[in-house]
Structure formats: C-alpha cells, structure tokens
Design a protein that fits this description.
Blueprint: E1 2-7, H1 9-28, H2 34-50, E2 52-57, E3 61-66, E4 71-76, E5 80-87, E6 95-98, E7 103-106, E8 111-117, E9 122-126, H3 130-161
Parallel strand pairs: 7-9
Antiparallel strand pairs: 1-2, 2-3, 3-4, 5-8, 6-7, 8-9
Helix pairs in contact: 1-2
Length: 198
C-alpha cells in the first residue's frame, strides 16, 4: 500500500494570515464582536479540512483525502487507462479546482499526476512525489491487467475441460421387417408314414 501526505504550506499560511487579520480588525472594532467569532470558526474549519492532502493507493483503489478526512474521493484502479505527469499552472490555485478538462486536487506546489479513466474523465492529483505516485499507479495497473488475463485463461481452460463430448451419431435402426427367404427344414419329411411300413 502507498500512503503519501503532503502538507499544505500555502493553504495553512494563507488561512493563518486571514485569521490574524480578522483578529486585528476585531480588536479595533468597538461593540459586539460576535460576527468575528463566526469567521474564526470558519477559518479553523477550513484549516482542519485542507491543511494536508493524503494520497492512498491500494490494490484496487486510488483515494485522495483532504485534512482530517472530511473530504475524500475514491477512484477504482481498474478504470484507469493512462497516467501522465503534469505541471499545475500558478493560476489554478489550491483546493478543489476545475482546470479546463479535469478536476484538480491540490494543497501545495505545482506537480501533479493526471489520471485518465476509461469513460474519458480526468483528474489531477497534486503531489510532491510525482515519480513515486506515477510508478505505484502503473505497477498496480499492470498487476490488475495480468490478473484479469490469468482469470480469463483459467475460465477458458475450465470450460474446455468440462465440455461434454458430442453424442456419436446414432446407428441406423435395424429393419426387423426384412423378408427371410430361408426355409426352415421340414422335420416331418424324415418321419416314415405308417402306411409305408406295412
């Protein structure tokens, strides 16, 4: 199993700076500061949700999980057709973004792996270990293909072994009505007539 965690330095820094700014504004604001408490809670929730990105590759799935796991996305490896290393443009930002023809999952940096599925759908998974993630995904995909071929071969061999032999052609039925011209011997011809013996 492959597990890799990438800390979202930019995300954490930006949210922390935002919290400090609102704290400064709240300190200078007279009166009730209740709305600032709601803002602080929202920033804290975003910190927990997006402070890191965890990428998990098992034997059958690719999972992308944010923060403490409130947001997680799971993709079956059996549907992946292509793995490509990509560079995320600076304007794409971080978090969950649409980048033209794919969804981007990212928290930091500009390296990503583009995963293409059989349906044509694409996702970009941000990572600071693109070589390792691409290698393990390709390895799992090859293993799944080999296992699928082995299963097909086993099914084919079992089908051949259990195939019932064809019934032989039935013999032609014997015609019991054929005339028999042979004459059975006349047993009475050998017996002397009583009149002849006299």
């Amino acid at each position: 199993m492959y597990i890799h965690r990438q800390f979202g330095w930019f995300t954490v820094f930006a949210l922390t700076a935002m919290a400090v700014w609102f704290a400064f504004v709240a300190a200078l604001s007279p009166g009730d500061r209740g709305e600032f408490q709601s803002i602080f809670l929202m920033i804290a929730a975003l910190q927990l949700a997006f402070y890191q990105l965890t990428t998990i590759v098992t034997e059958s799935t690719l999972t992308v999980r944010y923060g403490i796991g409130l947001l997680a996305f799971r993709f079956p490896l059996s549907e992946i057709t292509q793995i490509t290393e990509r560079s995320v443009p600076w304007y794409a930002g971080y978090g969950i973004r649409w980048v033209g023809d794919a969804w981007l999952f990212n928290v930091s940096g500009n390296d990503a792996i583009e995963v293409t599925f059989a349906s044509g759908r694409k996702v970009w998974v941000g990572t600071d270990d693109p070589d390792g993630l691409a290698a393990i995904l390709r390895l799992r995909m090859d293993e799944l293909r080999r296992n699928a071929v082995d299963v097909d071969n086993d099914v084919a061999s079992q089908t051949d072994d259990t195939a019932e032999p064809l019934d032989p052609e039935p013999d032609e039925t014997t015609n019991t009505d054929v005339n028999d011209d042979s004459v059975s011997p006349d047993v009475s011809a050998d017996v002397e007539s009583p009149t002849d013996s006299k």
